[in-house]
Amino acid sequence: MNKSILILVFLLGFAGMAKAQEDCKLRGEIRDSIGFPVYDAAVSAFNSKSEGVAFTFTDVDGHFELAVPCGETYDVEVEHVEYESFSQSVLVDRTKSLKFKLNKSTISLQEAVIQAKKPITVKGDTIEYDANSFRTAADENLEDLLKKLPGLQVENGKVYYEGKEITTIKVGNREVLGGNTKLLTKNLPADAIDKIQLNKKFKANPFSNSLSDDEEAILNIELREDKKSLLFGNVTVGGDAQEHADGQAKLFYFSPKTDGTFIADYNTYGKEVFTNEDYVSFFGGFRELMEEGSSFSLRESQRNVMLGSANDAAEMNSLIGAVHFGYEPNKKIYTNGFVLFNQNNLAFNSTQERISEGLNFLDEQKNDQNLLTTMGRFRLDYTPDSRSQIKYRLNFNYFENESEQLADRFLNGNSLGNTRFFQNNTGYGLKHNLSYIRKIGKDHNLGIYLRHQLSQDDPNMNISSSMIPVVIDSLAFNNLRQDRQLQTQNFQVYGIYNHLLTNTSNLRFKLGSNFSWQNLTNSIFEGNDLITNENFQTDSNLDFTELYADLTYTRKFGAFKFDVGAGVHNFASKSNFLTGNRSTNLTKFIPHFKMDVNVKNAHNVVLEYNQEYKLPNLVNLSDGYEVQNYYSIYRGFMDLKESLYHNLSLRYGYYNSFSFLHLYVGGTYVRSIDNMQTSSELVPPTQFNSLINNTEDDQNLVLYFGGGKRFNRFYSLNANANLSFMDYFTNISSINPTDGTMEQNWVNNTAFTQNYTLTNTFKFKKKVELDLGLNYLTSRFESVTDFDFVTWRPFAKAAWSITDKFLLQSDYSYRIQYQNDELINENQALNASLRFHVAKSTYLTFIAGNILGNDQLVNSSFDSKSNQTVINTRELLGRYFLLQLRYKF
């Protein structure tokens, strides 16, 4: 049966490709009045409904090719800024070749008009779409409208151009809703929109020169004149006759100078309202979070604020409230900010199985989690004159996470008693950035940047056991308590100067400093008795300084652009521990290289190489014990040294958006020297982890490819794949079952993961949209023992506009999981909703969730640190039915 499903889904894909053979090729040649080929002329085809079905530009020989459905008559229109417009009606019943002659224009045109009704207008690097030319009665919001525009791809509120996500969408040339593009696309009414403008080469830095790398595509939405000041949104109430409730309000307002957002939601069935992705977007997106600073070489990830886990938990209630404002009194000043409050209460049962050679741990767990999060942001942009700009950003967050887990524990079927694991984690973070950018002379610019970040985490915990205690250094803990606090402060100052030597060459000089101060304290108690033995108390601090200078030369040759450079970095750190001190001082020469090739704005190749040094942070170095949970203890290693990473990446992309075709393929390779790897000591039932520099080289290779093609208005195909190969070492000490001695071994681990997805999309008469696809995931781990995991997941998604009043939506997936060719899990998921359009702005929706009554979710993985297969099974919400009433205005 499983193979039949697989074959069926792939046949659908190839059947769709076969259907594409029904398309005809409309080829042509365009020359001027004296017979010379016309390069870069815009050629478009419109059907009888004035809908654009194909678009392209002529090549250097004046040739073009359009793929259009056979058997229809099309208006073929040719436009070029230097020539008079030309139009011809063509019946395409087979592959045809045409010849067009363009006459020189007697008027210097400022723009190229692609259709008499101006559905598409090209103005230099900007493509402008007339909303009325693409809008249909069924369009509700901006997302619906964007899906119809040639050149753009839309997926769950995200907009893509040439395969890259558009992270900036403005309204009236002003950023609104805190820059959250998903909120805007899913809520801005389609009937309020007049024009959509796509700027293909926008620069966030207004003083960037022609060789800067910060070009990106953005959208600007122009509203109709009668909608310039607009209040819109929706209010929803719903629930069932028993335990589930749903209430939501989304209100949006903007005018030429002001915008605001209010979001409130309460539900008890695991609906995801505000995701981590939305959180990042409100903080300025990944571009600002990852904005260029120093190399910041400490092994420290940015702490993410949690917004709740297990959204489909068996018992759950969630409350979210958010307020945002934006104000632009004039073109010199723009300010915005938001505050968000989120509270989640979760309860669910789960099991965790950890399997290794001769050992099988099984934990039956009951979980309760209460999470409170508050976060906010303030932004100020000030442009005092035409040559300078000042930006300030302030981000803050605070969270409280209280979780309790009761576990009945078993080893090889024998009871280890029960354990209560309680954790109360509180923390806050504050980050603010100040930048000053100034244009110097005609083509040069200077940027000065200051960044400061402060954070604190207090993850305190208590572990009590009925039978088997937690054992550390021969001390048994039946009622262990740990009080831990980590404070981190970072400060960066750096400057970047760009000097344009010629129109094709640039020098970029960067000079900066980076400082970090960290403090870690930790105390371990048995009941109320403080343990004063060595390594049971931690009071450590670290001072880190990085000084660096970097020079990059950029040169452009036609379609090629090269960046060649190198930096000199001096790293100095001093650490103090209860058991001693440590200091380091080293200077490193770090080269980097990038080649970018762009051919006709359709083919793009990027080759990049850089080196990166990572130094251990305070947690990596501190030699005091840290209890992570009831079976894992961590301890740092004072003698860790820096690691070197060689990073190489190659990417090729082909994007012909107006023929609805995009392809990409690429890969990254990372080779590390002296990599900081896990060293584990397995003494059942406890695992002791630390870090050690690997004397062997670790390596990681990732390959990816994908693409999509809309063959005609009825069928499109998307496929993508990701392959990852890791070859790395871990140090594992375990008890020899023969003589009971402890053996230490460097273990070479390899992991090869493949993930493939094929999706077929069918559309029938604008009434039915059907997605059929297959996801195949396989992972093979080779370590002390070998494991194979395979998951097949056929899926389907359907939307049927039965009448103008009724919309039926449904999604289905069938998951089959194997471990070493043995079936470990099989489940099906089916959800559906029926929406009734009661009145102009009122909708009544019946929702059926988890119709098949799926009551658990299984995830399997391999933990190389302990050489264990880990199988997690979590209890789900189960079947539910809701009635929802929504009013939109």
Q: Could you please describe the fold and organization of this structure?
A:
With 889 residues, the chain is mainly β. It has four domains: 24-114, Immunoglobulin-like (Sandwich), CATH 2.60.40.1120; 279-423, no CATH class; 447-577 and 585-658, TonB-dependent receptor, beta-barrel domain (Maltoporin, Chain A), CATH 2.40.170.20; 696-889, no CATH class. Helix content is 6%, strand content 68%. The chain has seven helices and 52 strands. The strands form six sheets. The chain has a 26-stranded antiparallel β-barrel. Strands 8-9-10-16-17-14-15 form a seven-stranded mixed beta sheet. A four-stranded antiparallel beta sheet has the order 3-2-5-6, with no helix packed on it. A hairpin with a 2-residue loop joins strand 32 and strand 33. The longest helix is centred in the N-terminal third of the chain and has 18 residues, at 2-19. It is globular. Residues 1-21 and 106-117 have low confidence and may be disordered.
- Quickly count the helices: 7
Helix content: under 10%
What number is the mean pLDDT? Answer: 83
CATH C-level class of the largest domain? Mainly Beta
CATH superfamily descriptor of the largest domain: TonB-dependent receptor, beta-barrel domain
Shape annotation: globular
Assign the CATH architecture of the largest domain. Answer: Beta Barrel
Percentage beta strand: over 45%
Number of domains: 4
